[in-house]
Amino acid sequence: MSFQPEQFLANLKSQTSKKGIRQYDAYGTYSKDVSVKVKEGKPDQVKANTKLQWLIRVWDERGVTGVTKCGSDDEESISFALDEARACAEVRPKENESAFSPVAGKKNLSKQTVNQENSAIQNMIDSLVKAEKEILASHPAIESVPYNALAEGYQSTCYLNSGGVFLVDANRSAYCYLYTKTNEAGKKPRSAGDMVVSHEIKTLPISECVRVVAEKTLSHLSYVSVATGKYPIVFSPGAFLDLFGAFSNFVNAQSVLDKQSLSTQESLQKQVASSLLNVWDFGLHPHHFGQCYFDGEGSPVERLPLLQSGKLVNFIHSASTAKQFGVSPTGHARMGAKVTVAPHYFEMSSADQSVQRPHWDSYIYVDELQALHAGVQPLQGSFSLPFDGWIFKDGKKQSIESATVAGDFLTLLQEICYVDKNVQFKASGACPEIFVSSLSITGQ
Amino acid sequence: MTQSQTIRFSEETWKPILETLLAKAKASGADFCEFFLEHKRYLRCLVENGRVTDVAPSLTLGAGVRVFVGEQDAYASSTDLSQKGLAHCLDSALAMAGLNPVKNNSHQATPVSILKPLRKLPQNKTNWLEKCPDIKGVSGFLLKANQTLKQKAQKSESIATSYFRDWQEIMVASSDGTFATDVRLTQSMGSNLLCVDGAHRTSVHERAGKTGVPQYFETYDYAPVADDLAQSAGTMLHADFVQSGKYPVVMANHFGGVIFHEACGHLLETTQIQRKTSPFVDSMGKQIAHTAVTAIDEGLTDSEFGTLDIDDEGMPVEKTVLIEKGILKRFISDRAGEKLTGHQRTGSGRRQDYTFPPASRMRNTFIEAGPHSKQDLISSIDRGLYCKRMGGGSVGATGSFNFAVDEAYWIENGKLTKPLKGAILIGEAVDVLKNISMCANDRSLAPGFCGSVSGTIYVTVGQPHLKVDSITVGGR
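Above: the input entities. Below: the structure tokens describing the complete assembly.
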């Protein structure tokens, strides 16, 4: 099986012509992935997946859209999908229906050919077994690396429409994650982990992942309880990106229109965060390994400022939301019957390099947030989340046994008192350490 | 093969193809090989504030091949269900397992008879899809439900009602002779209500669902759901944040069962036992919970969300007593779990779809009812928390768990007082099970989604109202 968007387009043209459908578009993805997991020096599970999916959207006589998703590109399957899509359009009202994106195909990047072949399985197993062995050798208390994986994949994406736009992009990505578990007599089991991403396994910093995981695990072997109360907090780049992502409805135009956002249309140009914070969304950031130069409606993906010195300057848009806001689409659409809007890759930095890092006698460092799906109330703005981290007191760093951090997201943004200069690159964004003057911690 | 037919996996078409491929797997040195074919018709529909905003059907065909060599397992999947596509998939799995797929047709030289007679599809399932409401019927029902909620809610900012239907046809064929086909039908209704009053905001949601009931809407009454959500949102809109601390708590029945699912159920799956990430690895036959606790995992209760006829390895499901009066009796096991841990399969091999190999997963999991009334439990507490409406939760690699409470009330001198929000319950599985000291006589089950190693699957959680003597509550 291979990805043949030209053939798909020919079949789609043939079927839409037969059915009298004049306006349509489609978004297709094709992926080939391999992954390995190991246990005690041996392969535990190896997996390969090849997947093709097309999302077809048609406009009916009223200009209302209907969609269907299908996994085949033959004419009979397309015919069936078109009938289903038309049936969907029938039950939808004619309100704020989107036309093609006015900027679809305005930027058509010619890309170099991307290699479709993944690494040899045995080499992947060997690399992961070596990583597991190195972590286990780093301290006798590390009993196992129960959650681990090394994966690589190729993905090709296509957007096409009846107006003649035809865009194809492809990329490769690879990742490795390692999570340990410790076992020491008289102590609770502890765990730590890390994940690294790259375009290919050969450029994946697995040794760095091993070093970070071993170091983190050892730092959690001795732990203390912390008293419940208010503390100054430092968020690791990964933790802050996770939290920001969980509340990203506040920069999402579709959420604003649906009243499912912490923002309203009037929030634009308001000071919603500390003046120290700049945030962009940039789907083509060189450290974003799932990048594609167009979105689900064919609009170009570009670097979009969201917060500038804490002021909300833009929302992310689809063609439909952009039309309602009177702006241009920003390249954040995901095609569907209801086109949704989603960020690609947040890029954050300090808006004022002259501000000095605060010197606190005691503070808590939140390294990794857990259970975001359960502890975040994205429509209320509140969060209460368990975390892994350390307490820094009188120059000493000690792991925290078990605690949660709680607060209100919009208040937290205002209470950022320092944004570090050193930006770190994570899977979901680029971000420095973020310092917040006070948040509630529940300890033992 | 195309996607427009309804029932696709017939014995006549597939037996010769699959037997040939299974013979090739054996000839290539595989200890075990299993094919999983899937045909899925999915429909999602969303009504927001009186408008149909999303109707999205999808059609999927896919296959997965799993090969065991010793303790290693390799899995390949594809959306290409042609014979050539399946053969390519098998070759990938064999190669990943370190085997050289036989090149010639020597495995086909003699007729093979690997598969047992097909476990056929029950006749009543063949027209389930046709009996389900069509797109117009679904959107009409959702519009009415949305309107009802709008009429009942005060200060509503946004109202969403949603529906999904997941119709799945599967065929399982493996080298031990297993040959089975089945059709599953899962339908669900969800309601979300966001209320705003000045700076005060609250959101509440409810989900219901059934399996194997084509005329699902005839069983679903949205009026009481709307009443419940409107009341809950009205109460919580001006609620204070809970003060963090350690308290005795009463957990509600129904979706309150998520605590057992997260805190204990996952740790009884052989996927955790084989990784030794469960504190219960060596606890078989031992007292791991209070004597008030008897816990079950089963796939048999009529029309519940986790109910199946066969699991994704072709094994008929069963009732599995996990804990009896506090004593650990069984683990939840699949084929790989049985092979790697020795614990007998329980019909619990489950997966989201053909892209995942199966793993030991829960089905309908609940704590059995006890002798007390709900009021007995509340009356027994001087200062504590009543957790009426639970959110989601998770369990970590070390057995520590957490889950959110969407609606809580303070208990003072045995009586419910003010509403509280923002609570998150935190603990260790080994501790909380011993701290469940009272179970009420009002067990109730609720549908849920469970995400784990083999993807997201439909499950049921459940319990009666129960009292936990002490648990850490995160708040402000």
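Note for the figure: The mean pLDDT of chain A is 94.
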